[in-house]
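In the current project phase, our protein records have gained a structure token line. A sample record follows, to show the layout:
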Amino acid sequence: MSKFSIPLKFELQCSIMTKESIQKIIAKFNLNTGSLQYTPLTNGLINDTYLVTNDDDQQYILQKINTHVFKNADVLMDNIQFALPFLSAEDYAHITFLSTLSGKNHLVQDNDFWRMMTYIPNSSTYNTTTQTSTAFEAGRIVGKFHQLMQHADTTLFNDTLPKFHNLNFRTQEFQETLRKAETQKKEIAHIAIKKAQSFLKELQNLNTSILPVRICHNDTKLNNILFSKSTKKALCLIDLDTIMKGYFFYDFGDAIRTVVNHAPEDEQNHELIYFNESLFKAFVDGLAANGPIFTSAEKESLPLGAVFMPFIHGLRALTDYLNNNKYYKVTYENQNLDRCQSLFDFAEKALAKKEFMSNYIKKVLV
């Protein structure tokens, strides 16, 4: 999803905003600054994001929330506001949302939903990594997030994306879309459709009834972790739009799919997709550095969770492809199908490592 930090590469946004219209939006936030410059950032697939810089080189992040995806953006901001007081520690960087001139944490302008937040200086993100030190830090910060959030009142949080990782819902959504899809698209995607049906049988073994409900980030891919450019330490999780109730294997599996695999999400050459055992071990070591947090049932769910999350993302991409790309931004017609096939390939490779993952988790996570 959207980024709170400068991506490695800048491109122009798909949506068109004039300089004057952006400046009018910025002027309605509580910024005591002179002239402002902005740069579009396009690392996110959902929201439109801009880096705002003032004359003193102070920087902020301005975002337009995609209300076609987040239909209850008010709830989204409420969840973030409930979470932020917990997400602050000596080893966890704090993000602050700026108020508007009218005192709100967001702005509704011409039916668009805007917000602005502080930018953490000297920071960066990584789409992938080959470094065990980065994998360790990713595990540590994901564990730290859950350590900090474990005392939050779950009843305060509402679902910003109802049934976001719910397998039954995603299955029904896929099957309904499949029935309505164009014949040509189904023919092109026939291998992916077969794999989806096979995975659905395997993942019925994932029993959530014995797992505690936690406040999860729900989108812990590696590039949603902010790192210090100088120390290389993980600073915090960013892109907080999906903070809501869930199970820890959601956050574990989503991180694993991007930490242990160096290939991009839409990689077409599947020989480049792999499961790096050393990076997996480093990530789990990082989790363990926070001390005991998770129940025995949670720890037992993690290996299959590392299969579940790439699969569920792949299934959503396949569903979106069959539905003519209404959810994710795409730069070419079959990009969602490429995403699906790449994610399914990694899910297969994760499934082959299930015993390895289980043994290491039992050894390291107390």
